[in-house]
Amino acid sequence: RRLLIVAGEPSGDLHAARLLEALGRHGAVQARGVTGPALEHAGAGRVAPMEDLAVMGFTGVLRRLPRIRRVFAAVENVFNSRYSVGKTPIRTVSSPVLMRVGIRWN
């Protein structure tokens, strides 16, 4: 199975890493996404570092908006090229900023 994960901050990285490790105990899982150190240690490939999405407050988002848009574009490119599920709602991992990307099975 393939898994696309986007963790926007450290607790999401840790939760997603634990999920990836648990899923790995039940069969092979290929994971890629926006990762922090915990997800990388759990075996996820990095599309972008989660630090690119770690912002606080409205002005923090505005200041980093160009970088956030580049991360979204990179994740969407991976999603569209490797996953065939279409544009359906996706859950996020502990990040209210990430409303369009998160965890998605193929």
> Which range does the strand content fall in?
15-25%
Based on DSSP secondary structure assignment, what is the total number of beta strands?
4
Give me the number of helical elements. Answer: 3
What is the N-to-C order of secondary-structure elements (H for helix, E for strand)?
A: EHEHEHE
Given as residue ranges, the uncertain stretches (5+ residues, pLDDT < 50) are 87-91, 97-106
Biggest β-sheet description: 4 strands, mixed
The assigned structural class equals: alpha/beta
How far the N terminus sits from the C terminus, by CA atoms, comes to 7 Å
- Mean pLDDT across all amino acids: 77
Shape: flat
What is the radius of gyration?
Answer: 13 Å
Amount of helix? 40-55%
Write out the strand line-up for the largest beta sheet, numbering strands in chain order: 3-2-1-4
Outline the structure in words.
Strand 2, helix 2 and strand 3 form a beta-alpha-beta unit. The chain has 106 residues and is α/β, with parallel strands linked by helices. The C terminus is likely disordered. It has a four-stranded mixed β-sheet, with helices on both faces. Helices cover 43% and strands 17% of the residues. The longest helix is centred in the middle third of the chain and has 26 residues.
